[in-house]
Design brief:
Layout (H helix, E strand, L loop, with lengths): L5 E3 L5 E2 L1 H11 L7 E10 L7 E7 L4 H13 L6 E5 L2 E5 L5 H6 L21 E6 L5 E13 L6 E7 L15 E3 L6 E3 L1 H5 L10 E3 L31
Antiparallel strand pairs: 1-2, 1-9, 3-4, 3-8, 4-9, 5-6, 5-7, 7-8, 10-11, 10-12
């Protein structure tokens, strides 16, 4: 996939990924505030120029809250296991664990996600994140900066993210809205041609084409909260 520019949600500017950090440091409102914050940069491990986020996170936020945010925004389909690897230590979590899972789960010996970020992270650090232990989605989290500012609502604030990568239907020139998952590579279709496919109606044979590194995996259909959707294509270059 081609590199994707993104949108700054502070001012609405459209910028390349490599220009966004400097822009955000200038664009952040000077509102005072004494909350210690981290600036985090999150990338998909396999398409790092395509899927990316900039997050502002209160340093006292527990690791579990960052996990919750990444799940709600980008990856959660079925409540699978997730983990962070930080300085060689693995912090794991399975939110919907059954009693059997808790007894037999090979991951129960891992560290819990109850520690605050300030006890685990420092500027310049890279953290590896994975969601699902069967159909992996892997992310890289970079700690870019630490500073004081206003407390983010919900402890995590989305500052910027990539635009949706444009894809066209494999049978016409319309925008793809579905991915056929019983083929590799996944095949993009517009709604009309997807519904004409012999496999239309089969469970998870077609999944929505969503702006997320989890797209087309397991039964992922995007975030449940409408305010977390960002299905916006890059603006024309002359805008």
């Amino acid at each position: 996939m081609d590199p994707m520019p993104g949108r700054c949600f502070l001012c609405g500017a459209s910028l390349p990924q490599e220009a966004m950090q400097a822009h955000l440091m200038e664009c952040r409102p000077n509102q005072g505030g004494q909350t210690p914050l981290f600036l985090l940069f999150v990338q998909d491990a396999y398409f790092p120029k395509t899927y990316w986020l900039f997050l502002e996170v209160a340093q006292q936020t527990p690791l579990s809250a960052l996990d919750d945010f990444l799940r709600r925004l980008w990856v959660d389909c079925c409540g699978h296991y997730s983990q962070f690897v930080i300085d060689g230590e693995t912090y794991g979590r399975r939110p919907k664990a059954s009693i059997v899972d808790l007894v037999l789960d090979e991951y129960t010996h891992l560290l819990p996600m109850d520690k605050p970020l300030q006890a685990l992270l420092q500027v310049g650090q890279q953290v590896d994140y994975a969601y699902d232990d069967a159909w992996f989605t892997e992310l890289r989290i970079h700690v870019l900066a630490a500073y004081d500012g206003p407390q983010p609502e919900g402890d995590v604030r989305l500052l910027a993210r990539n635009y949706k990568p444009p894809r066209t239907c494999r049978q016409c020139d319309r925008e793809a809205t579905w991915l056929f998952t019983n083929a590799w590579p996944l095949e993009p279709y517009c709604s009309e041609h997807a519904k004409q496919h012999p496999a239309w109606g089969q469970p998870d044979a077609f999944l929505p084409y969503i702006n997320s590194p989890r797209v087309g995996v397991c039964s992922y259909r995007g975030p449940q909260a409408q305010e977390l959707l960002f299905e916006v294509y890059p603006p024309p270059e002359d805008e």
